[in-house]
């Protein structure tokens, strides 16, 4: 006969991480050391400043709330329910607790001695990782952590980025000991060197440091156009400064840099700046050969193709690429960026092909992407959301001009639909006469939405404010955007409406019982990650940049980054928002690819405990930024 | 004659070592430790039935220490077919059975001078005392407390409220597992106790 009590404890523990990965023998050892505590409702498990207990706790029954003693009483930092771990602080930090833990309902806790646990975690690597994550999850609230806690949280952040997939994050391959010339070499000498070594670029060095780079393209354009003679020093044609990277650079970073600077070569130096010794050269070609199906290749293909079939193939490659990226731990910001650049290029191409088909547009126009397309935050295929603005024309010509653009929009929209971007059910498309208008008509439309705020108008604003030019004339989209900013300036009434809209969906506190699930309908027992978590962040970023008058930032991450620049005092909140946004977007993208859906609804039951924890942690910054919004807008108006 | 005197004055000179060291502990103040105990028996009549197993787990400051537990299965000549379905112990089934004297010896060492708690504990105590008597030993010296009395206090009622362990578990939302194993019942009773002593 086995030991029934120990078996009971094991039965419980083995359902939850990190215990589920521990083998039975070790689990048995651990279960024998467990102490069973009963904590009545509203009693403390520990208080802030209490001397550390020799045990940490697993909630077996009930729920324990964690809060900082300084923060007002209803402000729970975290709620731990069945299977959650708390009281880990003594394992990592100093000898007292930073928060208080109170039973929200009557609880049974399993107290596990650190001593027993340490022997075990030495054997099972995943166990300690999980505890670190738990700890970070409990203390994410910046108000609750002192320096030590912070240190740990930031350690954790690094850890997460370190645990990247090695297959993808292979070190970028580069050519060592590259051929260099000095500034005084002539163009002819440089050309000879390149041709002898069959290379397309040369680094120009000065005492072993890179000062410039010369490519065969530079030589062709300078010499062939006859502007300079072959005897000229290379320093007159070299590109400078040279973009440099360190030896330890990952493929993905290189891609990102090449994309960002629109360059073909990077110089590898000892410390990654142009102030240190040259180690090698890294060309776009190196990357392309390293990765056949890469974003740069896709971008180039888009520019070259003319047929829908080719675009379809590229669109499919993009999905494959993104899906593969998501499987790795590649930073979500990079995945989104690749998606954004390629999607934009694709849309651009679609409109260009449509224009070619219909003949050149009668007047200047701009094709605008709206909503998530405007923000460049699409990873999955979504509905089409676009609008078109054209130059003001005399009334007599208006009808003809508009009918051309409607045709253009219909053609483009049809193409997009073929590519998998289905028609917008609400018809927010340029093919709808309401959203295909001249500049002054658009200005009028925005004025109306802003001057007469209503739920409907605020909704329209939240979609249309995030427009981005996809194709056409910058001056039109810029004009529209400055009109909006002028209208919004110090418009407290409008911001109050927008602010109220932005905080209408408070974040869930935790996966505490059923309380954050969708209550009814098709998506019962699922979690609406878009409406409950992503949208609030997007809305917050939008209203904040609008009120600060920060123009030209459309992307949620970029917006928060701009806000950090503007308001360093809120850096912690905004940085938290960026991280949450990326984590949540990743959840959504994974879910979407898995089920071929919009990824909007997460099935909580299929999530692992550690995923749930990640999600939970992502909610906290939402709460913080909403608090900030409430202070800034709603109260400012109503008081 | 000498034995008679000894019995009269309770001088335990010829008691076995294990009893003497048990009795010795009561000279010091009782520890905070509480032992929650349950016996499975061949039936409910103390005069004819026998102990089949004893299970116990200890509490300190109202916390259950799983490591501090006790469980023995006792070899008995008699088995009663009608009680087998309840406790699931079939006679001579296992090799881990020990003699009643060995069980008592281990139990006394485990109990020490701690307070004993149980559900309808008087029955279990009676069974143990009978086993002690068979070995020529005195009754248990420990303080005894019954969950039923605590429950009445908890409810603020003066007369004894007769509730089964099942009913108490249901009332306190304790998942009923391993009912009718001595150790399982002791663990459940300990959990009931945790809730009863807290006001």
Gross CATH architecture of the largest domain in chain A: 2-Layer Sandwich
Q: What series of H and E elements makes up the topology of chain B?
A: HHEEEHHEHEHHH
CATH level-two architecture of chain B: 2-Layer Sandwich
Rg of chain B computed from alpha carbons, rounded to a whole number of angstroms = 17 Å
Number of E-state strands of chain B:
5
Annotated CATH topology of the largest domain in chain A: Beta Polymerase, domain 2
Helix run count of chain A = 23
Strand order of the largest sheet of chain B: 3-2-1-4-5
Task: Using the coordinates shown, work out and report the CATH topology of chain B.
Answer: Nucleotidyltransferase, domain 5
Q: Please mark out the parts of chain A with pLDDT under 50 across 5 or more consecutive residues, or reply none.
A: 138-171, 512-516
- Secondary-structure-derived class of chain A: alpha+beta
Broad shape of chain A: globular
SS class of chain B = alpha/beta
Average pLDDT for all residues of chain A: 79
- For the largest interface in this structure, which chains are involved and how many residues does each contribute? A-B, 20 and 24 residues
Main beta-sheet annotation of chain B: 5 strands, mixed
Number of domains of chain A: 4
Strand order of the largest sheet of chain A: 1-8-3-6
The value of Rg of chain A in angstroms is: 29 Å
């Amino acid at each position: 006969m086995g030991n029934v009590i120990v078996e009971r404890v094991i039965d419980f523990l083995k359902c939850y991480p990190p215990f589920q990965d521990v083998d039975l023998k070790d689990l048995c050892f651990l279960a024998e050391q467990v102490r069973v505590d009963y904590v009545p409702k509203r009693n403390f498990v520990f208080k802030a400043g209490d001397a550390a207990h020799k045990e940490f706790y697993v909630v077996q029954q009930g729920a324990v709330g964690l809060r900082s003693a300084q923060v007002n009483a209803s402000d729970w930092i975290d709620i731990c329910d069945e299977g959650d771990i708390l009281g880990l602080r003594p394992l990592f930090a100093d000898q007292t607790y930073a928060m208080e833990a109170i039973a929200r309902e009557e609880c049974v806790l399993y107290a596990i001695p650190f001593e027993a646990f340490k022997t075990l975690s030495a054997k099972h690597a995943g166990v300690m990782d999980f505890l670190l994550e738990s700890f970070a999850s409990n203390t994410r609230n910046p108000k609750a952590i002192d320096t030590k806690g912070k240190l740990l949280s930031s350690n954790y952040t690094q850890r997460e980025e370190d645990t990247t997939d090695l297959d993808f994050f292979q070190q970028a391959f580069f050519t060592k000991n590259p051929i260099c010339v000095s500034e005084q070499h002539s163009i002819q000498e440089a050309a000879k060197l390149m041709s002898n070594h069959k290379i397309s670029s040369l680094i120009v060095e000065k005492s072993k440091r890179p000062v410039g780079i010369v490519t065969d393209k530079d030589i062709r354009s300078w010499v062939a156009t006859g502007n300079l003679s072959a005897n000229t020093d290379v320093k007159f044609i070299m590109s400078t400064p040279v973009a440099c990277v360190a030896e330890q650079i990952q493929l993905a970073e290189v891609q990102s840099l090449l994309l960002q600077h629109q360059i073909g070569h990077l110089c590898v130096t000892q410390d990654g700046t142009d102030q240190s010794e040259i180690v090698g050269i890294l060309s776009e070609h190196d990357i392309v050969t390293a990765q056949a199906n890469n974003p740069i290749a896709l971008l180039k293909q888009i520019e070259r193709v003319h047929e829908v079939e080719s675009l379809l193939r590229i669109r499919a490659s993009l999905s494959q690429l993104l899906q593969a990226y998501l499987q790795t731990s590649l930073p979500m910001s990079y995945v989104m960026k690749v998606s954004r650049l390629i999607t934009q290029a694709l849309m651009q191409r679609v409109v260009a092909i449509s224009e070619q088909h219909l003949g050149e547009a009668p007047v200047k126009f701009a094709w605008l992407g709206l909503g998530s397309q405007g923000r460049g935050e699409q990873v999955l295929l979504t509905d089409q959301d676009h609008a078109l603005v054209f130059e003001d024309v005399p009334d007599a010509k208006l009808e003809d001009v508009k009918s051309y653009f409607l045709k253009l929009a219909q053609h483009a929209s049809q193409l997009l639909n073929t590519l998998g971007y289905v028609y917008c059910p609400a018809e927010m498309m340029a093919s709808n006469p309401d959203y295909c208008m001249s500049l002054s008509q658009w200005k009028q439309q925005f004025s109306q939405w802003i001057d007469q705020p209503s739920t409907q108008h605020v909704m329209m604003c939240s979609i249309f404010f995030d427009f981005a030019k996809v194709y056409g004339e910058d001056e039109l989209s810029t004009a529209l955007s400055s009109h909006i900013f002028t209208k919004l300036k110090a418009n407290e009434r409008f911001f109050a409406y927008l602010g109220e809209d932005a905080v209408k969906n408070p974040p869930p506190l935790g996966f505490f019982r059923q309380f954050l699930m969708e209550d009814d309908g098709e998506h019962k027992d699922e979690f609406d990650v878009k409406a409950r978590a992503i949208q609030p962040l997007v809305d917050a970023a939008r209203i904040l940049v609008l009120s600060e008058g920060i123009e030209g930032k459309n992307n949620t991450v970029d917006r928060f980054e701009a806000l950090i620049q503007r308001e360093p005092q809120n850096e912690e909140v905004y940085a938290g928002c960026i991280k949450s946004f990326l984590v949540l977007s990743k959840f959504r993208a994974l879910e979407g690819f898995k089920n071929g859906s919009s990824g909007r609804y997460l099935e909580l039951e299929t999530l692992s405990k550690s995923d749930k924890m990640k999600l939970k942690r992502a909610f906290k910054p939402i709460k913080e930024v909403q608090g900030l919004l409430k202070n800034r807008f709603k109260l400012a108006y109503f008081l | 004659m000498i034995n008679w005197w000894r019995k009269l004055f309770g001088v335990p000179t010829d008691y076995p070592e294990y009893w003497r060291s048990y009795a010795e502990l009561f000279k010091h103040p009782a520890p905070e430790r509480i032992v929650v105990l349950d016996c499975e028996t061949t039936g409910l009549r103390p005069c004819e039935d026998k102990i089949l197993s004893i299970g116990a787990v200890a509490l300190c400051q109202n916390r259950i220490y799983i490591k501090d537990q006790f469980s023995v299965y006792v070899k008995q000549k008699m088995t009663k077919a009608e009680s087998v379905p309840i406790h699931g112990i079939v006679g001579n089934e296992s090799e881990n059975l020990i003699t009643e004297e060995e069980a008592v010896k281990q139990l006394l060492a485990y109990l020490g001078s701690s307070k004993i708690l149980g559900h309808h504990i008087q029955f279990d105590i009676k069974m143990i005392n009978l086993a002690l008597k068979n070995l020529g030993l005195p009754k248990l010296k420990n303080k005894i407390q019954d969950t039923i009395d605590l429950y009445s206090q908890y409810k603020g009622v003066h007369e004894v409220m007769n509730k089964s362990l099942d009913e108490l578990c249901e009332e306190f939302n304790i998942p009923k597992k391993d009912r009718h194993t001595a150790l399982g019942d002791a663990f459940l009773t300990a959990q009931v106790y945790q809730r009863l002593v807290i006001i």
